[in-house]
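As a next step, the fold was encoded as tokens, giving this record:
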Amino acid sequence: MEARPHVIGKLSVVIPVRNEAEGIRSMLESLRDAFGRPAELLIVYDDDTDSTLPVVRSMTPMPGLECRLIQNTLGRGPANALKTGFAAARGDALIVMMADRSDDLRALLPMLALFDQGYDLVSGSRYMAGGEQIGGPWLKGKLSRIAGLSLNLVGLPTHDPTNSFKLYRTSRLRELLIEGGGGFEINLEIMAKALRARWRIGEVPSRWIDRTTGSSNFKLWRWLPRYLKWYSRAAAELIRGKLRSSAQLSVRF
């Protein structure tokens, strides 16, 4: 097995792509002044026919940002692309962003501020006060909101666990055995396992805007059963945590 890269202190940004030629240049250029610290941009693609690649290769290097093209060899799908990016990351903080510019650049510095305060996972939250979702399929948005708010009611420290736009502490992320090899339900899987491992979890308000170029690769009905699996596991972990706390309180009294 190939050794994992050493974590060296910079920020890693994992960006899964599939034929994002229309928008990738403007997306990467928008990150030029977004972080306030050195960063590597890991553009993760499935195969050499991806239209994103020649655009990235033609770009002029940007000061403070290192662009790395990383091929996903684990199998197609966003979960495998993210796992490939996680393994290649060399930063001590890792942020997942989409190539369609749907994620909120204004949330990046607040996310990094919480990381510097010791948080292990920081979610960009569309559903907390100050957050917003603009556009996108109605049913997908409704299900995502219900999942987030219901888990928050039973103790999850974020209103938006399904959002891909998250910051992770790389060392903690690599402690997890991530099973998912399909779609974006990987976000709920990581959240469920982070709860079990008692990570410090936070959130910042974020605005999500539906893509204006290209087409979405989101497959709601194919991925829904796996979403339900990890939603159930996150809910069970939260309930177990509440029962443990109640038992400890009863013992004290």
The two ends are 52 Å apart (CA to CA). Residues 11-252 form a domain with the Spore Coat Polysaccharide Biosynthesis Protein SpsA; Chain A fold (CATH 3.90.550.10).
